[in-house]
Amino acid sequence: MNEQTETPPAITIGADGVDVHRIEREILEAVAAKRARGEYDDAAVARAERNNILALKDDKEFMERYLACLRQIVPVDINDFEIVERRSRLAPLLKALKRTIWKLLKFYTYRLWSQQNQTNGVLLAAIEIMDRRHGAEVAALRARIEALERASAK
Amino acid sequence: MKIAFVSPRLHERGSVGGAETLLWNMARDAAALGHEVVFLTTCALDHISWKNALPEGRADRDGIEVHRFRVDPRDEGQLARFQIDITRGARLSPAQQLSWISNTANSSWLVEWLRAAAPSIDRVVAGPYLFGLTWNVCRALPDKTLLVPCFHDEGYARQGVLLDAYRKARGFLFNTDPERELAHSLMPGLSPRVESVVAMGIEPFEADKRAFAARTGIAAPYVIYSGRREDGKGTPVLVDFLDCFRRRTGRDVHLVMTGSGQVQIPPSLASAFHDLGFVSEQAKREAMAGAAAFVHPSLNESLSIVLLEAWLARTPALVHSRGRVLRWQCESSCGGLWFTDYPEFEEALLRLLDDAPLNAVLGAQGRRYVLERYSPAAVRARLAAALEV
Q1: How many CA atoms lie within 13 A of B39 on its CB side?
Q2: Sequence-ordered list of residues with C-beta below 8 angstroms from that of B344, at least 6 positions apart, any chain
Q3: How far apart are CA A130 and CA B183, in angstroms?
Q4: What is the rounded (10 degree) CA torsion for B24, B29, B35, B37?
Q5: Given a cut of 50, is residue A1 above it in pLDDT?
Q6: Which of the pair, B8 or A59, is modelled with greater confidence?
Q7: What is the enclosing helix (H) or strand (E) of B27?
């Protein structure tokens, strides 16, 4: 193998061929269009963000993203769900047993989860109000500081 | 020139940590360049307990003189307390910082040996930054020390006692340009004699795209991740996102992982998850070659070797946009895409799955980039230049 003494520049953004920045712009446009159509208003998406949201904690848009996720998952899902059983031998029996247990649990816990959903809704509303209020206060303080700086510069 | 390389660990066969692999490869490159090389390390194998598992003394490996020294006694309780504080972003006093660094991996025997041998040694290459061993070596021989910091943007890298010592080092051998930028933001006004981006050479290889499916019977399209599975590497995000992707799109896309560590797989993903554990290099390369994408959601890397390997296997990457170095690798090579949240992940993965020509071009661009920038010859040339200054 020949020894290379010259190496290419460290960054070659937009090299020959496909420019990944162009592809990324297309992806962001597609996501924005789908978002506008409500295609990501899905509790599954919000749940999928549970670990990722920590990675975005320093972002400017953190609260916006966090609240968007919270809005999707704030109601506890108390609907029926598909009951599965992997042990094929006793599957029909075990499935029937699980269904009965679920019906009993649902009967006893429905009132509890309904109250929890009300509490979650109130908490979300409180966080949204606080976020808006703090945002408005910060904006007003910024404007005041800028005005004071302009005045002192004169 | 006589060069001493210092790494907190060196396994007897192969290697496990990224920094360890990097330093060992640099040592071999320096020897290949005709320098006289000694490799100084500890008797420890495990980076949690730092137990002295191997005998101390001299041995030869691949023609390089290796000296092992005992790890100093440590107060693990004290270390854990300060590590939690640092991770939480708490500000430690200088005394607390000293206590923290003194209870990481240190070897006063190694430092004493180095001091005694100093007159005959021209350069010391040591790393990574967050161990007392590296810090003490740099304090002992700052004018001869070239630091291989492997800086990550994290609380440990903001401890003043470390930075005060590293600022006096002869030079820095970085892995990437973003790491160099990070070093300057951590140490404003830094002006070492040597400042190079060297990184690690990767031997070119070819891998058959169909070999993995033929051997394992996994015919479904899949994405792959290789390396340690832990929160810090972002593997829970990958699991969450792929599970959601399968539910929302109805596509039977599988997840293949190689490497070690626990990973929590939800029942809905269990049938589509393939944990290969540690595999041979060839098996890993074939698994990479057959994948629709190599997904790396880690935020903190100083250089991703597995990403370079995936590109050599002509597989495009999909990384987290907040992983500064990984995104830089994708931007520099035009070999991969990035995502910030689930919707972007879904859209990017759909593009990589459905647009075969795009997938192939990104993979090819990644491969070309690795061959140009990270060939053993290119890396050795950069190392040679840095050692001569």
Answers
A1: 27
A2: A27, A28, A31, B321, B338
A3: 38
A4: 10
A5: no
A6: B8
A7: helix B18-32
Classify residue B291 by its DSSP letter: -
Distances (CA, A) of A116 to A47, A67, A74: 18, 18, 10
Q: Given 3.40.50.720, 3.30.565.10, 3.30.70.120, 3.40.50.2000, which CATH number is that of B211-373?
A: 3.40.50.2000
Ramachandran region, residue B201 (left: φ > 0; alpha: ψ -120 to 50; beta: rest): beta
In three-state secondary structure terms, B319 is strand
Among B263, B331, B388, most A C-beta atoms within 10 A, so best to mutate, is: B331
B127, B303 contact by CB (below 8 A): no
Structure tokens at B98: 């000293």
C-alpha to C-alpha distance for B60 and A4, rounded to whole angstroms: 30
Q: Chain B partners of A31 at a C-beta cutoff of 8 Å? A: 343-344, 347
- Taking phi first (over 0 means left), then psi (-120 to 50 degrees means alpha), and beta for anything else, what does residue B225 get? beta
- One-letter amino acid identity for B70? R
pTM of the model: 0.81
Out of A72-86, B134-148, B279-293, least confident range: A72-86
Q: Are A30 and A40 in contact (CB under 8 A)?
A: no
Q: CB neighbours (10 Å) of residue B33?
A: 16
A56 chain-B contacts, CB cut-off 8 A: 322, 340-341
The CA distance from A45 to the nearest CA of chain B, in Å, is: 7
**Whole-number CA gyration radius for chain A:** 26
* Number of CB atoms found within 10 A of residue A148's CB: 10
Band the pLDDT of B11: cuts 50, 70, 90. Answer: confident
Q: Omega of the bond prior to B128 within 30 degrees of 0, cis?
A: yes
E runs forming strands in A9-131: none
pLDDT digits (tens, 9 = 90+) for B261-272: 889 999 999 999
C-beta separation of B359 from B316 below 8 A: yes
Return the pLDDT at B13.
Answer: 67
Of A1-5, A32-36, A112-116, B206-210, least confident by mean pLDDT is A1-5
The tokens describing B275, both together, are 């944990």
**Domain chopping of chain B, boundaries:** 2-201+375-388, 211-373
Which of A15, A17, A31 is opposite residue B343, by nearest beta carbon?
Answer: A31
CATH number 3.40.50.360 is the correct assignment for the domain at B2-201+375-388 = no
- Inter-chain contact A4–B375, Cβ cutoff 8 Å? yes
ipTM of this complex? 0.83
Confidence of residue A39 (pLDDT cuts 50, 70, 90): very high
Q: Reply yes or no on whether the pLDDT at A68 is more than 80.
A: yes
Nearest to residue B328, comparing CAs of B180, B213, B228, B196? B180
311-330 in B: which are within 8 Å (CB) of A? Answer: 320, 322, 328, 330
Burial class of residue B300 (count of CB atoms within 10 Å of its CB; 0-12, 13-18, 19+): middle
Per-residue model confidence as pLDDT tens digits over A13-26: 444 578 999 999 99
